[in-house]
Amino acid sequence: MEFLARIYLWCIPGLVLFTLLLWIYGDWKSRRCLDNFISGGAVAVVSYSKRRWRRFLLLAGLICLSLAAARPYWGERPLEFNINESDALIVFDVSKSMLSEDVAPSRLEHGKWLLRNLIKNNPEVSFGVVAFAGRAFPACPVTADQVSLFQTIDELDCESIPVGGTNLAEALTAAKKALDATGAATREIILITDGEELTGSVEKVLESLKKSRIRLLVVGVGDPAVPALIPEIGDDGRKHFKRDQAGELVKTKLNEELLRRIAQATGGIYINSNALNTGIEQLSRELKQQNSTAAKEIKRSLPIERFMIFLVLGTLSVAIYMVTNEKGRLKNVMLGCLLSVFVLSNQLSAAEAQSAGKMNDAETPAADAGKIAGHSEEKDFYKIYNKARSLQLDNQPEAAGKLYSQLNQMEVPPEIRAGSMHNQGVIEHTQGRVIFNQAARTAQSGKLDDAIKELTQVESALQKAEELYVNVLQSDIQTAAAKISEVSAVAQQQLLLDRKEVEKLRKQLEELKKQQQQARQKTQQAKDKNQQQQNQQQQNQQQQNQQQQNQQQQNQQQQNQQQQNQQQQNQQQQSGQNQQQNGQAQTDRSAAEALKDAQNAVDKLQQNARQAGQQQLENQARQAAEALKNAAEKQQKGDYNGAAEDLEQAQNALGKQENSDNADKENNDKKSGGQTAGAGEKSSGKDAEKKDSDAEKNSTQGQQSDNKMDGKQSDALLDLMSQDEKVLRDAIKSKRSRRIAPVEKDW
User: Does the pTM of the predicted model rise above 0.70?
Assistant: First the structure.
């Protein structure tokens, strides 16, 4: 037997000694009192054996209680549990630019709301807070106490740090020191800022964080496209906008490029948090992923405590001692035991009754919404409204929307109509947000056309929600339900912000789609130019072969005039080669320029896709850029067949996402216009035959023109032949003059 609290064992000898001394003193004191009051030293007749028995029970009871306090145990049981060693330090920007209201209600309040929800969703992670502006201030150490964290977040304000600016380097240094002190397995820094006017040498701190394996999860708060003004309270107590020394309004804009570069330097991620896409899910996913890798399984053994045995024995011994006396009889002992059992049973009954009361309280259903509002359920529209609201709270928007539509067509009180329209508007608004998030994920996968279609559905849902919100703000309904009207007004403002985000995403996707189409067109043009260049090369080769054949024929016909004809033929061949080279050079330049235009279009598409966060489209553009680069290298080497294959790969990379759409369109066209397609095929067949016949005629004429000799060349050959003939005649005449003159006969 072992003890967990051995210090209480030292109390047993002292307790025994003190009890014995107390008994001795009591006996002496009682005898003295009896001697004074009773003559002859007579004492009351008592049972000394019963006295010793009672004292033994008391002493044994005290010893048992002391042993129970020492927590004795024997035996052990195994225990396995996981320990998560993950810490995250929040670096929060409290500079003046965080007061801008481009994200409702402001960048500062939006960031604080984001932190509260992030801490609630990740109770297994310990958080700390560092506020910074011109200087850094550790607001809260790393702790798992959410109450302290929420209190610290509520106290964050732009007046917390008197020094202006945004000294990010000092803030990251302070965060690194705080995380190094914890010694956790995984450590991450969550930076919440707008990236405006960052000061300090951030590169050195980022390198230090990378070596320490501390990731940066950067959350950008604000609008990266439209600059915002910085509000401030003037001396007159009114709200003004901040101006510089020249009297110009100070504008601030989210610096996404800088924040994305900071996050990538440590292997982290960048998130733009706004009203529609808060980024809480993505941050929680990153934290849980790191937390799962840092979890450690620990096996321990817990001792099995046996203090209850000694506690029961000690309690019974003391209870028996208290209910018996020195004149005691056996029935008194039995009475003490029964009394102890009765007390214990009453305590158990009270505990069971208390637990039963709690269970009854927990099983009692909540009051109906109509009763809470003070309405009776005698009319049907109250029942319908309460049922629709319960369905809406149970995440059944379709069923709730049908009931709200039914209420809007009934004659109901203004407050019921206001609540019904507002709740139905909330359903449409929520549905629009859900579809918007789905459209963002669709765009991330590279399906721009589907994403644009989903954005059209989002705009339709927001339009319906706005109409319902506006109906709530009518004069008669607004007077009857003022609170609901105020809520609808706030919801309408949020809807306007959501619509702005939808328009922004639509504009971004349409621009990406336009650039994608331009990249496809440029790639197709480069492919056509490469094919022309390949055909030109084949034609040049055929012409060279034909010229060689003509040269052989001319050599056979003009053996006597070989030198002169060779010169003329060389000149002719040289001129033909020059013409071929000039044509080849022009074709090469046109093909190279077309390929260069395609590369520029693909690079632009890749850059814009990266800025928009469209990873799938960025990967497609990267594959197309690599294929175009390989095609350019092969064109320079004269390998036009290989260049054509690379251009085909680039075109496939840019056109993968529309294959299914084109197939659907072709199927629809076939179903809707079969006769038109047949007529088109006939006309196209005739056109193809006509083109083939024209091509054959052109090729035949080209061959005939190649077989015919040039007119100037034929004239020169005739002149040479006439000169040779004249020389031959003169030679014959000279030989005749040397011979004997022939005899003239007179016939």
Answer: no
